[in-house]
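for the recovery benchmark. C-alpha coordinates below, seq after
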Protein backbone atom coordinates (compact mmCIF):
# COMPACT_ATOMS: atom_id res chain seq x y z
CA UNK A 1 0.00 0.00 0.00
CA UNK A 2 2.82 2.40 0.84
CA UNK A 3 4.55 1.98 -2.52
CA UNK A 4 1.25 2.55 -4.35
CA UNK A 5 0.66 5.78 -2.44
CA UNK A 6 4.20 7.01 -3.13
CA UNK A 7 4.00 6.04 -6.82
CA UNK A 8 0.67 7.85 -7.19
CA UNK A 9 2.03 10.98 -5.53
CA UNK A 10 5.12 11.05 -7.75
CA UNK A 11 3.08 10.40 -10.89
CA UNK A 12 0.75 13.25 -9.92
CA UNK A 13 3.72 15.59 -9.46
CA UNK A 14 5.42 14.63 -12.73
CA UNK A 15 2.31 14.91 -14.89
CA UNK A 16 1.14 18.09 -13.15
CA UNK A 17 4.53 19.67 -13.86
CA UNK A 18 4.36 18.55 -17.49
CA UNK A 19 0.77 19.77 -17.76
CA UNK A 20 1.61 23.25 -16.45
CA UNK A 21 4.74 23.64 -18.60
CA UNK A 22 2.95 22.48 -21.76
CA UNK A 23 -0.02 24.74 -21.00
CA UNK A 24 2.33 27.72 -20.60
CA UNK A 25 3.76 27.00 -24.04
CA UNK A 26 0.35 26.53 -25.64
CA UNK A 27 -1.31 29.55 -24.06
CA UNK A 28 1.74 31.73 -24.62
CA UNK A 29 1.94 30.93 -28.33
CA UNK A 30 -1.85 31.32 -28.68
CA UNK A 31 -1.84 34.77 -27.07
CA UNK A 32 1.17 35.80 -29.10
CA UNK A 33 -0.29 34.84 -32.47
CA UNK A 34 -3.66 36.43 -31.73
CA UNK A 35 -1.83 39.62 -30.80
CA UNK A 36 0.31 39.37 -33.93
CA UNK A 37 -2.67 38.75 -36.20
CA UNK A 38 -4.62 41.70 -34.79
CA UNK A 39 -1.64 44.07 -35.00
CA UNK A 40 -0.75 43.46 -38.66
CA UNK A 41 -0.63 46.62 -40.78
CA UNK A 42 -0.61 47.01 -44.58
CA UNK A 43 2.65 48.26 -46.03
CA UNK A 44 4.40 48.98 -49.30
CA UNK A 45 6.72 46.55 -51.00
CA UNK A 46 5.12 43.47 -49.48
CA UNK A 47 4.96 40.21 -51.49
CA UNK A 48 1.76 39.30 -53.29
CA UNK A 49 -0.85 37.67 -51.08
CA UNK A 50 0.45 39.19 -47.85
CA UNK A 51 -2.22 40.47 -45.48
CA UNK A 52 0.08 42.80 -43.56
CA UNK A 53 3.25 43.13 -41.53
CA UNK A 54 4.29 43.86 -37.96
CA UNK A 55 7.54 45.15 -36.52
CA UNK A 56 8.50 43.89 -33.09
CA UNK A 57 11.48 44.20 -30.78
CA UNK A 58 12.53 41.56 -28.27
CA UNK A 59 15.75 40.44 -26.64
CA UNK A 60 17.77 43.23 -28.20
CA UNK A 61 16.71 42.45 -31.77
CA UNK A 62 14.16 43.72 -34.31
CA UNK A 63 11.77 41.40 -36.10
CA UNK A 64 9.76 42.04 -39.25
CA UNK A 65 6.88 39.57 -39.55
CA UNK A 66 4.49 39.20 -42.48
CA UNK A 67 1.35 37.08 -42.78
CA UNK A 68 0.01 35.61 -46.00
CA UNK A 69 -3.74 35.78 -46.33
CA UNK A 70 -3.87 32.17 -47.57
CA UNK A 71 -0.35 30.85 -48.28
CA UNK A 72 2.87 31.84 -50.09
CA UNK A 73 3.27 30.99 -53.76
CA UNK A 74 5.65 28.12 -52.97
CA UNK A 75 6.29 25.89 -50.01
CA UNK A 76 9.11 27.24 -47.78
CA UNK A 77 12.05 24.95 -47.11
CA UNK A 78 11.53 25.07 -43.33
CA UNK A 79 8.25 25.38 -41.46
CA UNK A 80 7.63 25.48 -37.70
CA UNK A 81 4.43 23.81 -36.52
CA UNK A 82 2.63 24.76 -33.33
CA UNK A 83 0.71 21.72 -32.16
CA UNK A 84 2.67 19.64 -29.67
CA UNK A 85 2.09 22.16 -26.88
CA UNK A 86 -1.66 21.63 -27.25
CA UNK A 87 -1.45 17.85 -27.52
CA UNK A 88 0.90 17.55 -24.54
CA UNK A 89 -1.33 19.78 -22.42
CA UNK A 90 -4.38 17.62 -23.04
CA UNK A 91 -2.64 14.25 -22.75
CA UNK A 92 -0.90 15.16 -19.49
CA UNK A 93 -4.16 16.62 -18.16
CA UNK A 94 -6.04 13.45 -19.01
CA UNK A 95 -3.44 11.34 -17.19
CA UNK A 96 -3.88 13.64 -14.18
CA UNK A 97 -7.64 13.06 -14.32
CA UNK A 98 -7.00 9.32 -14.26
CA UNK A 99 -4.63 9.58 -11.29
CA UNK A 100 -6.51 12.10 -9.18
CA UNK A 101 -10.19 11.86 -10.11
CA UNK A 102 -10.73 8.37 -11.52
CA UNK A 103 -8.42 6.27 -9.32
CA UNK A 104 -9.66 8.18 -6.26
CA UNK A 105 -13.18 8.85 -7.44
CA UNK A 106 -14.68 8.07 -4.02
CA UNK A 107 -12.76 11.05 -2.60
CA UNK A 108 -12.69 13.64 -5.37
CA UNK A 109 -15.27 12.83 -8.06
CA UNK A 110 -18.21 11.51 -6.03
CA UNK A 111 -20.14 13.27 -3.28
CA UNK A 112 -22.88 11.02 -1.99
CA UNK A 113 -24.67 14.02 -0.52
CA UNK A 114 -25.10 15.20 -4.13
CA UNK A 115 -25.72 11.84 -5.84
CA UNK A 116 -24.90 8.34 -4.64
CA UNK A 117 -22.75 7.13 -7.55
CA UNK A 118 -20.24 4.32 -7.64
CA UNK A 119 -16.73 5.35 -8.74
CA UNK A 120 -17.20 3.41 -11.98
CA UNK A 121 -20.44 5.19 -12.87
CA UNK A 122 -18.93 8.57 -12.02
CA UNK A 123 -15.94 7.85 -14.26
CA UNK A 124 -18.13 6.72 -17.14
CA UNK A 125 -20.30 9.82 -16.73
CA UNK A 126 -17.17 11.98 -16.85
CA UNK A 127 -15.78 10.33 -19.99
CA UNK A 128 -19.16 10.25 -21.72
CA UNK A 129 -19.86 13.93 -21.07
CA UNK A 130 -16.43 14.90 -22.41
CA UNK A 131 -17.10 13.13 -25.68
CA UNK A 132 -20.72 14.26 -26.00
CA UNK A 133 -19.92 17.92 -25.31
CA UNK A 134 -17.20 17.97 -27.95
CA UNK A 135 -19.41 16.24 -30.53
CA UNK A 136 -22.21 18.78 -29.97
CA UNK A 137 -19.79 21.70 -30.28
CA UNK A 138 -18.20 20.21 -33.41
CA UNK A 139 -21.60 19.62 -34.99
CA UNK A 140 -22.60 23.23 -34.30
CA UNK A 141 -19.41 24.55 -35.91
CA UNK A 142 -19.64 22.32 -38.98
CA UNK A 143 -23.31 23.23 -39.47
CA UNK A 144 -22.32 26.83 -40.14
CA UNK A 145 -23.76 28.24 -36.90
CA UNK A 146 -20.31 29.51 -35.87
CA UNK A 147 -20.37 32.02 -38.73
CA UNK A 148 -23.00 33.96 -36.75
CA UNK A 149 -20.58 35.05 -34.06
CA UNK A 150 -22.80 36.68 -31.43
CA UNK A 151 -25.65 34.11 -31.44
CA UNK A 152 -23.07 31.31 -31.48
CA UNK A 153 -21.20 32.84 -28.54
CA UNK A 154 -24.41 33.26 -26.52
CA UNK A 155 -25.55 29.74 -27.36
CA UNK A 156 -22.15 28.29 -26.48
CA UNK A 157 -22.15 30.16 -23.19
CA UNK A 158 -25.60 28.87 -22.23
CA UNK A 159 -24.54 25.37 -23.25
CA UNK A 160 -21.51 25.47 -20.92
CA UNK A 161 -23.53 26.93 -18.06
CA UNK A 162 -26.14 24.20 -18.50
CA UNK A 163 -23.39 21.56 -18.39
CA UNK A 164 -22.00 23.14 -15.23
CA UNK A 165 -25.39 23.04 -13.52
CA UNK A 166 -25.74 19.36 -14.46
CA UNK A 167 -22.22 18.50 -13.27
CA UNK A 168 -22.75 20.17 -9.88
CA UNK A 169 -25.87 18.04 -9.40
CA UNK A 170 -24.14 14.77 -10.32
CA UNK A 171 -20.52 15.09 -9.16
CA UNK A 172 -18.77 16.60 -6.19
CA UNK A 173 -18.15 20.34 -6.38
CA UNK A 174 -14.45 19.79 -7.00
CA UNK A 175 -15.20 17.11 -9.58
CA UNK A 176 -17.75 19.34 -11.31
CA UNK A 177 -15.33 22.26 -11.65
CA UNK A 178 -12.64 19.97 -13.00
CA UNK A 179 -15.13 18.37 -15.39
CA UNK A 180 -16.32 21.62 -16.97
CA UNK A 181 -12.67 22.70 -17.24
CA UNK A 182 -11.85 19.39 -18.92
CA UNK A 183 -14.76 19.87 -21.35
CA UNK A 184 -13.52 23.31 -22.37
CA UNK A 185 -9.92 22.07 -22.61
CA UNK A 186 -11.01 19.11 -24.74
CA UNK A 187 -12.90 21.40 -27.12
CA UNK A 188 -9.84 23.62 -27.41
CA UNK A 189 -7.35 20.85 -28.16
CA UNK A 190 -9.82 19.15 -30.51
CA UNK A 191 -9.96 22.43 -32.46
CA UNK A 192 -6.22 22.08 -32.98
CA UNK A 193 -6.24 18.34 -33.67
CA UNK A 194 -9.39 18.03 -35.81
CA UNK A 195 -9.51 21.35 -37.68
CA UNK A 196 -6.53 23.68 -37.43
CA UNK A 197 -3.71 21.19 -38.10
CA UNK A 198 -5.62 19.11 -40.74
CA UNK A 199 -6.46 22.29 -42.63
CA UNK A 200 -2.84 23.41 -42.47
CA UNK A 201 -1.84 20.01 -43.82
CA UNK A 202 -4.25 20.50 -46.72
CA UNK A 203 -2.68 23.88 -47.49
CA UNK A 204 0.83 22.38 -47.42
CA UNK A 205 -0.25 19.49 -49.67
CA UNK A 206 -1.76 21.93 -52.16
CA UNK A 207 1.43 23.98 -52.26
CA UNK A 208 3.56 20.89 -52.80
CA UNK A 209 1.26 19.86 -55.65
CA UNK A 210 1.57 23.28 -57.26
CA UNK A 211 -2.09 24.11 -56.61
CA UNK A 212 -3.74 27.15 -55.05
CA UNK A 213 -4.95 26.34 -51.52
CA UNK A 214 -8.63 26.84 -50.71
CA UNK A 215 -8.93 29.99 -48.54
CA UNK A 216 -11.75 28.32 -46.58
CA UNK A 217 -9.22 26.00 -44.93
CA UNK A 218 -7.35 28.89 -43.36
CA UNK A 219 -10.56 30.71 -42.44
CA UNK A 220 -11.90 27.66 -40.60
CA UNK A 221 -8.65 27.29 -38.68
CA UNK A 222 -8.69 30.96 -37.78
CA UNK A 223 -12.27 30.66 -36.54
CA UNK A 224 -11.35 27.81 -34.16
CA UNK A 225 -8.25 29.69 -33.02
CA UNK A 226 -10.41 32.66 -32.03
CA UNK A 227 -12.72 30.32 -30.09
CA UNK A 228 -9.71 28.98 -28.20
CA UNK A 229 -8.52 32.51 -27.47
CA UNK A 230 -11.74 33.45 -25.72
CA UNK A 231 -11.94 30.17 -23.79
CA UNK A 232 -8.42 30.31 -22.38
CA UNK A 233 -8.93 32.54 -19.33
CA UNK A 234 -11.97 30.65 -17.98
CA UNK A 235 -10.26 27.27 -18.35
CA UNK A 236 -7.25 28.48 -16.35
CA UNK A 237 -9.50 29.50 -13.45
CA UNK A 238 -11.33 26.17 -13.58
CA UNK A 239 -8.10 24.18 -13.62
CA UNK A 240 -6.74 25.90 -10.48
CA UNK A 241 -10.08 26.08 -8.68
CA UNK A 242 -9.45 22.85 -6.75
CA UNK A 243 -7.21 24.93 -4.46
CA UNK A 244 -10.12 27.22 -3.49
CA UNK A 245 -12.94 25.45 -1.62
CA UNK A 246 -14.99 28.63 -1.30
CA UNK A 247 -15.40 28.46 -5.08
CA UNK A 248 -16.19 24.81 -5.80
CA UNK A 249 -17.73 23.63 -2.52
CA UNK A 250 -20.32 26.30 -1.77
CA UNK A 251 -24.02 26.62 -2.38
CA UNK A 252 -23.91 28.66 -5.61
CA UNK A 253 -20.84 27.04 -7.18
CA UNK A 254 -22.47 26.70 -10.61
CA UNK A 255 -23.34 30.42 -10.64
CA UNK A 256 -19.69 31.22 -9.87
CA UNK A 257 -18.65 29.18 -12.92
CA UNK A 258 -21.25 31.01 -15.01
CA UNK A 259 -19.67 34.33 -14.02
CA UNK A 260 -16.15 33.06 -14.75
CA UNK A 261 -17.24 31.77 -18.18
CA UNK A 262 -18.53 35.26 -19.03
CA UNK A 263 -15.75 37.24 -17.38
CA UNK A 264 -12.84 35.55 -19.19
CA UNK A 265 -14.02 36.44 -22.72
CA UNK A 266 -14.88 39.98 -21.59
CA UNK A 267 -11.30 40.49 -20.36
CA UNK A 268 -9.90 38.99 -23.57
CA UNK A 269 -12.05 41.48 -25.52
CA UNK A 270 -10.18 44.34 -23.85
CA UNK A 271 -6.76 43.04 -24.88
CA UNK A 272 -7.87 42.02 -28.36
CA UNK A 273 -9.27 45.50 -28.95
CA UNK A 274 -5.97 47.07 -27.91
CA UNK A 275 -3.96 44.63 -30.05
CA UNK A 276 -6.09 45.66 -33.04
CA UNK A 277 -5.42 49.34 -32.27
CA UNK A 278 -9.11 49.99 -31.65
CA UNK A 279 -10.39 52.26 -28.86
CA UNK A 280 -9.75 50.57 -25.52
CA UNK A 281 -13.00 49.31 -23.91
CA UNK A 282 -12.17 50.48 -20.37
CA UNK A 283 -15.66 49.54 -19.24
CA UNK A 284 -14.40 45.95 -19.14
CA UNK A 285 -12.65 46.57 -15.82
CA UNK A 286 -15.82 47.92 -14.24
CA UNK A 287 -17.60 44.74 -15.30
CA UNK A 288 -14.69 42.68 -13.98
CA UNK A 289 -14.83 44.42 -10.60
CA UNK A 290 -18.58 43.84 -10.27
CA UNK A 291 -18.14 40.20 -11.30
CA UNK A 292 -15.40 39.60 -8.72
CA UNK A 293 -17.53 41.20 -5.99
CA UNK A 294 -20.41 38.94 -7.03
CA UNK A 295 -18.14 35.87 -6.85
CA UNK A 296 -16.99 36.94 -3.39
CA UNK A 297 -20.55 37.30 -2.13
CA UNK A 298 -21.64 34.00 -3.65
CA UNK A 299 -18.65 32.17 -2.17
CA UNK A 300 -19.70 33.42 1.27
CA UNK A 301 -23.13 31.76 1.02
CA UNK A 302 -21.90 28.66 2.81
CA UNK A 303 -22.05 24.93 1.98
CA UNK A 304 -24.77 23.33 -0.13
CA UNK A 305 -26.39 21.54 2.79
CA UNK A 306 -27.84 24.22 5.06
CA UNK A 307 -28.70 23.60 8.71
CA UNK A 308 -32.01 25.23 9.66
CA UNK A 309 -32.23 24.26 13.34
CA UNK A 310 -31.09 26.16 16.41
CA UNK A 311 -27.48 26.14 17.59
CA UNK A 312 -25.95 27.31 20.88
CA UNK A 313 -24.68 30.89 20.77
CA UNK A 314 -21.39 29.74 22.30
CA UNK A 315 -20.63 26.22 21.06
CA UNK A 316 -18.62 24.17 23.49
CA UNK A 317 -15.12 23.47 22.19
CA UNK A 318 -15.44 19.90 23.35
CA UNK A 319 -18.32 19.46 20.88
CA UNK A 320 -16.22 20.96 18.08
CA UNK A 321 -13.29 18.72 18.96
CA UNK A 322 -15.53 15.68 18.90
CA UNK A 323 -16.84 16.59 15.43
CA UNK A 324 -13.36 17.21 14.00
CA UNK A 325 -11.92 14.08 15.59
CA UNK A 326 -14.77 11.92 14.32
CA UNK A 327 -15.12 13.35 10.81
CA UNK A 328 -11.55 14.48 10.02
CA UNK A 329 -9.24 12.60 12.38
CA UNK A 330 -9.17 9.37 10.42
CA UNK A 331 -7.00 11.08 7.80
CA UNK A 332 -5.47 14.05 9.65
CA UNK A 333 -3.60 12.01 12.23
CA UNK A 334 -0.08 10.75 12.83
CA UNK A 335 -1.23 7.33 11.64
CA UNK A 336 -4.22 7.74 9.28
CA UNK A 337 -6.67 4.85 9.21
CA UNK A 338 -8.33 5.73 5.88
CA UNK A 339 -7.49 3.33 3.08
CA UNK A 340 -4.91 4.63 0.54
CA UNK A 341 -3.82 7.52 2.82
CA UNK A 342 -0.50 6.87 4.54
CA UNK A 343 0.33 10.37 5.84
CA UNK A 344 -1.86 13.26 6.94
CA UNK A 345 -2.83 15.32 3.84
CA UNK A 346 -0.58 18.39 3.55
CA UNK A 347 0.91 17.47 6.94
CA UNK A 348 -2.12 18.90 8.77
CA UNK A 349 -2.84 17.11 12.07
CA UNK A 350 -6.21 17.51 13.76
CA UNK A 351 -5.77 14.90 16.47
CA UNK A 352 -5.79 17.18 19.52
CA UNK A 353 -7.23 20.47 20.72
CA UNK A 354 -4.06 22.45 20.08
CA UNK A 355 -3.93 21.41 16.44
CA UNK A 356 -7.63 22.14 15.94
CA UNK A 357 -7.21 25.68 17.31
CA UNK A 358 -4.09 26.20 15.19
CA UNK A 359 -5.87 25.26 11.97
CA UNK A 360 -9.22 26.82 12.91
CA UNK A 361 -9.51 29.10 9.86
CA UNK A 362 -8.40 26.32 7.53
CA UNK A 363 -11.06 24.06 9.03
CA UNK A 364 -13.57 26.84 8.50
CA UNK A 365 -12.76 27.28 4.79
CA UNK A 366 -12.91 23.57 4.12
CA UNK A 367 -15.54 22.14 6.47
CA UNK A 368 -17.74 24.96 7.79
CA UNK A 369 -18.05 27.73 5.21
CA UNK A 370 -17.81 25.13 2.45
CA UNK A 371 -18.25 21.37 2.20
CA UNK A 372 -14.88 20.62 0.57
CA UNK A 373 -13.86 18.42 3.47
CA UNK A 374 -14.15 15.59 4.15
CA UNK A 375 -13.63 14.91 0.42
CA UNK A 376 -16.75 13.40 -1.05
CA UNK A 377 -18.15 13.72 2.49
CA UNK A 378 -16.94 10.16 3.00
CA UNK A 379 -17.35 10.43 6.78
CA UNK A 380 -20.86 11.90 6.39
CA UNK A 381 -20.39 15.16 8.25
CA UNK A 382 -23.84 16.64 8.80
CA UNK A 383 -25.04 20.16 8.09
CA UNK A 384 -25.58 20.65 11.84
CA UNK A 385 -21.96 19.71 12.55
CA UNK A 386 -20.69 22.15 9.93
CA UNK A 387 -22.91 24.85 11.41
CA UNK A 388 -21.56 24.09 14.89
CA UNK A 389 -17.99 24.62 13.70
CA UNK A 390 -19.04 27.83 11.89
CA UNK A 391 -20.70 29.14 15.06
CA UNK A 392 -17.56 28.34 17.09
CA UNK A 393 -15.44 30.23 14.58
CA UNK A 394 -17.86 33.16 14.57
CA UNK A 395 -17.57 33.32 18.37
CA UNK A 396 -13.79 33.67 18.09
CA UNK A 397 -12.72 30.00 18.12
CA UNK A 398 -12.40 30.02 21.90
CA UNK A 399 -13.03 27.34 24.51
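predicted aa per position
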Amino acid sequence: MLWQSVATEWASLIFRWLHVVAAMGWIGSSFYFIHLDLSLKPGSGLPDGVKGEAWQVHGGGFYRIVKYLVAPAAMPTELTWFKWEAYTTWLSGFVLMLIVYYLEADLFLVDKAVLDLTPLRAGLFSLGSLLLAWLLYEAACRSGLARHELPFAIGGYLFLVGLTYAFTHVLSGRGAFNQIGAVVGTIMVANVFATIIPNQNKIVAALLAGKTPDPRWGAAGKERSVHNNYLTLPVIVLMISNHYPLLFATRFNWVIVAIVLALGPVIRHFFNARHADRPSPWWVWGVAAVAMIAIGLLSAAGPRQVHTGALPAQPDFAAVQEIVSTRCGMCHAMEPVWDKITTAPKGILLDDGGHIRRYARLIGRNAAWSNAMPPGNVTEMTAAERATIAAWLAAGATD
